């Protein structure tokens, strides 16, 4: 019988009754991969705010702190992996950050995936007081998954060319000591396309920014000369075509302007296929971690009902990145 | 593409961060079966109350009513099936009951599984004011899943012999108009054992009450002469051996006295095996419903990680009964 801590994940994110975002998007796929997931809901909303109306309750800082304290007192903070997403307000966010610090101090091997939910497309959707709290939390993370706007906010750097992108990554790695950064989406502007190696570029038949998003991963782990050299990290990029599509569960109203559904659908699908791509592991000549409980699955080994459910569920960034960081960890 | 309402379930139950009870026990198996599950958390607790300490927040009646209203206004009350479990307090329970009434009036075909969570082993663990609210809700249910104590409370009938058991079932079917009753557990006392047909009896080598539990299902649907006759329902029974075991997620302290782990472990396992028993469907000479999204699965078709997860997860009553009522519906 596996130990109760093996691969156990504590997920602290939003919950919606209807739709698949936050914890509703992340937990089911992780459970399908064999992880035991402890789930703390930072909000309990009817649906994503992208619908015209939404409501429900937000956990207060005191409620979250009390819950973490009780889990600790009961000996139930058993997880080896921590995943945090949207937390409502600076005080509640500070309670989550304090937990992350305690857990990291207790177990320096903790894998902490921090999704610094601040905003998108040039607009904050949390209080500005959250920014310094996220900045303080960064040093405890193993991997972070900001979008391009969140990178700009965290690093105070406008990303307008390869130099500013490199600077932002360097700030995250060197000033904030984040070993792994995944920029979950960044529009493929002309300057970014030109900076990519030809093998990572999309076909030249498309010309507009809106046709592709890039996903950029940057890691200092296992990189020679990573301390202050000119090549501080290994950077991987992948372009994702934007196709028209419907992204279930995040609304059709205001949301479709702020977070275009067509982007997210395809991002999701691309990540899903990346996640299940067996060759992702084979070429590494290393077993993925947790083989006994979280085998990489060919989609054909999933029951058809679960497959269709997985495809319908938005995986957002988390499980893909989770696997990615797992693979990286196995190479150390 | 299946319609968004096909097989969609709205689950209104408790949530615990750690462990598998309430929604944490029911939702994952239902998702694995291909259902889209909308999830309203009636409480957000750190863990089951069986641990020495627990805490978190309870949804108020106003919060629940607002959430249901918003889902309705957004056109998101799409489910064809409703599943309700623990609701904290009479006012919040009334809000859930009101929703069930509205949904049933809007869609008379709604399948409503009502788990009337009142108490166990002779003790209430909710306010007595909940009792009349559950009694009022019963008429809207398709199937209810009380334990023996909850049957006693709802029907105001002490179950001490076959006559009182029959009377309690008759009250549920005839006074409260519940078409399907599953008594999820009842100790196999001498009188109950004697009342069972020999094919349903456990071996005679065991003598104590504590060795077996019975699960009793009683249905008026499709039963000739069900209106006021002497045989008001078709009754099925199954005995479940009690073996020592550990029931993960409901604590080790007070709980182990109030809700013996050894009972629940085996109940869970028995239900799990019943649930996945392909022959359950084959002998009916009818396809189970929702074949496109919720096929009955041989466990061998599940990935090993999901299998072990399913076994670790307590299914409690819900998915088994859910399938049971689905099978019954397909025979209508």
TrEMBL record, chains A, B:
SUPFAM superfamilies, sorted: Ribokinase-like
GO molecular function: ATP binding; pyridoxal kinase activity
Gene3D superfamilies, alphabetized: 3.40.1190.20
Class of enzymatic activity (EC top level): transferase
Residue ranges occupied by any Pyridoxamine kinase/Phosphomethylpyrimidine kinase domain in the UniProt entry: 85-184
Gene Ontology biological process terms, A to Z: pyridoxal 5'-phosphate salvage
Assigned EC number: 2.7.1.35
GO cellular component: cytosol
UniProtKB keywords: ATP-binding, Kinase, Nucleotide-binding, Transferase
Family that this chain belongs to: Belongs to the pyridoxine kinase family.
Protein name: pyridoxal kinase
């Amino acid at each position: 019988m596996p130990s109760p801590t093996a691969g156990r994940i504590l997920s602290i994110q939003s919950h919606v009754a209807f739709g698949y975002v936050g914890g509703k998007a992340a937990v089911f796929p992780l459970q399908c991969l064999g992880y035991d997931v402890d789930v703390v809901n930072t909000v309990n909303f009817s649906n994503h705010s992208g619908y015209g109306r939404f409501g429900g309750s937000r956990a207060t800082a005191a409620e979250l702190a009390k819950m973490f304290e009780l889990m600790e007192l009961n000996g139930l903070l058993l997880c080896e992996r921590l995943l945090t997403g949207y937390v409502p307000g600076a005080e509640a966010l500070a309670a989550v950050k304090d937990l992350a610090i305690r857990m990291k101090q207790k177990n320096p091997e903790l894998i902490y995936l921090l999704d610094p939910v601040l905003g998108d497309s040039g607009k904050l959707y949390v209080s500005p007081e959250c920014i310094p709290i996220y900045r303080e939390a960064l040093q405890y993370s193993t991997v972070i998954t900001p979008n391009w706007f969140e990178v700009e906010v965290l690093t105070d750097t406008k990303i307008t060319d390869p130099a500013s992108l490199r600077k932002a990554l360097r700030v995250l790695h060197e000033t904030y000591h984040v070993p792994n950064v995944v920029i979950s989406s960044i529009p493929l502007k002309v300057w970014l396309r030109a900076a990519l190696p030809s093998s990572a570029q999309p076909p030249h038949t498309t010309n507009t920014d809106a046709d592709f998003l890039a996903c950029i991963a940057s890691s200092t782990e296992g990189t020679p000369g990573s301390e202050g050299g000119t090549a501080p990290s290994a950077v991987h990029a992948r372009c994702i075509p934007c196709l028209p599509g419907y992204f279930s569960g995040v609304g059709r109203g205001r949301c479709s302007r702020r977070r275009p559904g067509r982007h997210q659908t395809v991002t999701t699908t691309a990540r899903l296929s990346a996640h299940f791509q067996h060759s992702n592991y084979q070429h590494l000549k290393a077993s993925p971690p947790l083989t006994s409980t979280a085998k990489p699955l060919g989609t054909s080994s999933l029951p058809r009902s679960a497959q269709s459910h997985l495809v319908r569920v938005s995986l957002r960034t988390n499980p893909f990145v989770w696997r990615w960081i797992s693979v990286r960890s196995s190479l150390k």
